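agent: user wants the full assembly modeled, not chains individually. Plan: 1) parse entity lines 2) check alphabet per entity 3) run joint structure prediction 4) return tokens. Steps 1-2 passed, two entities, 232 residues total. Proceeding.
--- entities ---
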Amino acid sequence: AQSVTQPDIHITVSEGASLELRCNYSYGATPYLFWYVQSPGQGLQLLLKYFSGDTLVQGIKGFEAEFKRSQSSFNLRKPSVHWSDAAEYFCAVGASGGYNKLIFGAGTRLAVHP
Amino acid sequence: GAVVSQHPSWVICKSGTSVKIECRSLDFQATTMFWYRQFPKQSLMLMATSNEGSKATYEQGVEKDKFLINHASLTLSTLTVTSAHPEDSSFYICSASLRGLSSPYEQYFGPGTRLTVT
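--- prediction returned ---
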């Protein structure tokens, strides 16, 4: 069965510092991978996605993620964090079995210090 | 484009009553709509998947008689929480999958509905 692991529950960084949020997946074939961001009390916004091709994908708000098949990882990065990036970040993988369902990781809560 | 709305954004109801939450895709036809439940500081838990004109498919452990889902059209799905109890209080989020999208798993999420049962 597919699964997604986000090892870090909370991360705190200083504004302007670089950021990397980890995501590991379990999936037999080439996965469909996503990163979503959720601000407090809001729905989810898609940051970026990977299906095939270039393993380094660019997203919105200056985020990027790199797919590494050998490590079963899809880590999210940003070179310089802004205070407005404080939010909850979810990694997700497309699930097999029909209906195009997503399996979400537990999420990583990002706090940004001024 | 690809905007999903939910109504209401928050609702308070008394224990034993029913409440309906609407999910609409505003500018596209949704092949499939999904309903999630999210507890505070936790991830999204998929409750059910609904396709237009057919019965919803519920995840294991979700009571289909309690959480009624109707997908009446390609732009509207509703979730009715019947005989609500305080333990049903939660944040409910819907999402929609776009017909013909090149990325089949991509979902567009609504802003969520905060349900509080007193």
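agent: reporting back. The first strand of chain A starts at residue 3 and ends at 5. Chain A touches chain B at residues 32, 34, 36, 41-46, 49, 51, 90, 94-95, 99-102, 104-107, 109 (CB under 8 Å).
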